[in-house]
Amino acid sequence: MTTDIKWMQRAFELAEKAEAQDEVPVGAVIVYQDKIIGEGWNQPISSDDPTAHAEIMALRDAGGKIGNYRLPNATIYVTLEPCTMCAGAIIHARLSKLVYAVDDPKAGACGSVFNLLQTDKLNHKVEIEKGVMEDDCRCLIQNFFEKKRNKKNE
Asked: What's residue 151's pLDDT?
């Protein structure tokens, strides 16, 4: 098992935790020197907080643990391509790398709709790797929304 798969597997487990709370199943893990320093899963509905995306929760967790809002040389693993809010937070935290599983063609800000992480207009660029555990993460998200649609039609 590669390192990226190992950490994405943990992000996937956190996405399942979000799903169990009836949240969109997205999970995020921040790794520094081969150790998890931050974890998060989607919680905007349960917390009544529109900023409580998995990435933001993981960034808050990591910043609190290391006592700094800057996370240089750290990598974030996310099951879904980050939105503009999360991409902006990743830039401000100075993460060095993003690894994500599934493109988000409607809201993705790391290559699908925009690419905030690598624009020349900002002072920090983040390396991007995509497609790690893509099939598993895509199935989790698709099944979640299919169940929602079926419940609505009952």
From this structure: 79
